[in-house]
Amino acid sequence: MDRTITALRAEHDTLASLVRTLTDDRLAATGGAAEWTVAQVLSHLGSGAEIGRAPIVRATGETVAAEDNETIWARWDASEPRAQAEGFLESNLRWLELVEALTPEQHSTLSVDLGFLPAPVPLLTALGMRLNEVANHSWDVRVALDPHAGVDAGSAAVLVDHLTGPLGFMLSRLAKPAELAAPVSIAVPGAGLVIDDAATVVDHLEAPSATFHGPQEAFVRLISGRLKAPYDNGVTVEGNVTLDGLRRVFPGF
Known about the structure:
Layout: H1 2-19, H2 24-28, H3 38-59, H4 69-77, H5 81-100, H6 104-109, E1 111-112, E2 121-122, H7 123-142, H8 153-163, H9 171-174, E3 184-188, E4 191-195, E5 199-202, E6 210-213, H10 216-223, E7 236-239, H11 243-249
Parallel strand pairs: 3-6
Antiparallel strand pairs: 1-2, 3-4, 4-5, 6-7
Helix pairs in contact: 1-5, 1-7, 1-8, 3-4, 3-5, 3-7, 7-8, 8-10
């Protein structure tokens, strides 16, 4: 929990420092998310923080009135690029300060109804999902300015641990294991990836059939469909599966 919240704070501070320097041209550029401008990525993160704050407040026992998601998205989408960027700073900080103020008891007891899952999830799962969103979309923004940027190393380490535990269920939503003709087990930095009838991240593998050569942040980008040319320099896969094969399994979101 502490590592997740620390990573979320670091992601916010990094983006906040960057956003304040962006020119209008930079806000209009595209980066890791080819179909969105930098401003639109920030709008997505800002609206997500606004939408995601209400369920956490409700989980603490408070009553909060909130607009429906479509209304919130429409309001953000209608904003000018500069307002989207500035709105992200305000909305994400408001979400983060709520999370940072939660007590250790709340960390272990709160259950959050996110609205789009079959049942409420532990707070840690909700925060891990937000970190996954922020870390990957932060990369979308930063790579527009630096083609050699990676997902923050601290966030990547936390996310790999999450994928072996509370966020493991997300792989069923992200992976297309039928893209491979045969099962594979791949050693990846700090963990292992098994792809058979499903995709699973495990703590380790005794006898992997392949090895992913690259940093943890590249593995996180693989899972989210972001390990594509020209952002895959130096990453290779050795064994009974190819990097292109793995990219077919994880087409992205």
